[in-house]
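Supplementary notes (optional reading)

For those who missed the lab, this is the record we used. Protein: N-acetyltransferase domain-containing protein. Length: 386 residues.
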Amino acid sequence: MDSPPILFSYTTTLKDNTTKVTIYPILSIDIVPNSLFEFLCDEYNLEIERGETLPHFETLSMKQFIRHWFDKSVVGIMILGENPITNHKHRIWEQECLGIFNIKPNFPGKRCSHICSGEFLVNAGIRGKGIGKILTNVFLFWSSHLGYESCILNQVFETNVSARKLWESGAFNFKRVGKIAKSVYLKNYDDPVDTIIYGKNLKEEEEPQDKQGATNIDNSSVRFDKIKHYLQTGKYHKDATRQEKSRLRSSSSHYSIMDNKLYMKGKEVISNPAKQLEICQILHEKNGHCGINRCTSLVSEHYHWMRIKDSVTFCIKNCKLCKINEKQVAARIIQPVLKRARLNENLQQVIQQAQQNLTYADAAATALKDYKQTDMTTHVQSYLDE
């Protein structure tokens, strides 16, 4: 059985061209901190209570929310900046979590398993920044990368003007494939409202692009396969446009074929994401669990693919030995801090006892005795267990 495609995080800027945001793929709920779940659940329930865009009457419990959003779904969460959601301490999600979407099968069973659907939610306090457009852009690309061929958005209420305007715009060109008359009762409306069903073909879906048109998500596998096919056969792939043919002719001069492998300027081209991570892991371990920059240099000496550093970063952050070493380093850093905190605590005891008419010598002796009896190892271990 083939392994599922590997999705990489996507970093871009909002429409102010300054504010950086990152969308992280969530393939397992285990990496999502509880505090973020709580915020997202509250945001979704707030949208339910508004009664304008969702079919629910009653708000969802945390368990219901997680099942509704994450069960059999791939989820993308947009975070301000480039600080991963796994670094969850001291995070203010109301200010840092900008939006979320999910990708899930639209129908049960395998006969229609090539059709997906999805749901979108933008932080109610941070709207009008182009967040919905970025979420939709990445949703479409990831859906295509996951193997879906078509997308259907089932419940877009006619009164949801902003969503309709976005999806019908030239940026996405969703088509109206159906309409259900008087299908939903909304808050502040006396009569039921129509529901519009949108559809889109994902086969020709391109990669998300930033404001300058530069590709930020790596879809190099398809591009490299096209170059390899052109070099081996001298023919263009089926349905190639004139522009694609021109790009193939231009880029093929930098590539060559050896032993049925594609090379660029003497470096082997690796298009399979799983193989990319395997190479990163091998070189990382063989070179003493080296850091990101060193490992990136080692990989770049012999191999080529887009965004090598992202692959290396993903590999190192998931290295079990490196995680253990991080905890050991943290223990060495925190131990002096804990000692100072304990000394300050005993100093306060000295002052309090002195104020109770004890002699300074007696108070100091008592505090020193208490301090020596304290097992600092216990403090460090409790920190590591957090």
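If you only remember one thing from this example: The CA atoms of residues 52 and 361 lie 72 Å apart.
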